[in-house]
């Protein structure tokens, strides 16, 4: 019989997906489901040809140098800022991600976080649970309007377009967007979105939603200067990656009410959350769950596994990021 490729499953995954992988590969699974430190990951990958990762495992030149047999890294995420794509290319290592399967689910969550933030949902619930609710009052937890307001989307890929469609068609919002490149006219028409410069977007949007990839160019794309352009009544929602927002600057802007509120699903250096954000009530905080529905997480795991299977049986990766 042919020698079975050796793969590492770097984090816990659905048991039946693991069984599918075990049927074709020689699998080592990280049963403890602790994030492997770089040296430990390198050690476990030293004799592996493939690995299934999440966005938590960093694949860089130092790791690749220690893993000469590695040929493919299948990320269970659409974002792949944990990959050093140049180093992987130089080492001849294929990378794959999980696009499309999470688009609509993640767009749903972007909208949920926008609504929770604008309407002060978690702040109000904490107040109720703490037994502080004594009577109805005219201005109690009065937030910002969502329907009919202007939504500014920064990053207009598949997920951004999904949010734009929800906003324009479902909530009658005036949608503007900023992106590296303008969408084709038919795509713009489908989501009723208008292209504007970043500064105009920040100055005029009632709600700013971030859904762009994290790259060196987007590091701290929203810092003190950008926050200063926003309306004092505006909200900021980040479902993209921590690091796109300067969390320390955001905490200052929220504390001084230079913007009204923020909703954050991702953080710089997560799972650590900036203590100044934790101390504020005008921010909704969630633990990187935008793609977290059972069917979508299952589809992501399945696609990551399918990428490994297709790569090793010679069909080639299904959703490559660097070829
Ligand atoms: C993604 O798919 O990129 C999500 O953020 C999960 O890491």
UniProtKB/TrEMBL annotation:
Stored Pfam families: 2-Hacid_dh, 2-Hacid_dh_C
Domain of life, source organism: Bacteria
Residue intervals of the D-isomer specific 2-hydroxyacid dehydrogenase NAD-binding domain: 111-290
Domain D-isomer specific 2-hydroxyacid dehydrogenase catalytic as annotated: residue spans: 7-322
MF term (GO), any: hydroxypyruvate reductase [NAD(P)H] activity
Keyword list, A-Z: NAD, Oxidoreductase
Keyword Metal-binding (UniProt): no
GO cellular component: cytosol
Family: Belongs to the D-isomer specific 2-hydroxyacid dehydrogenase family.
Listed name of the protein: D-glycerate dehydrogenase
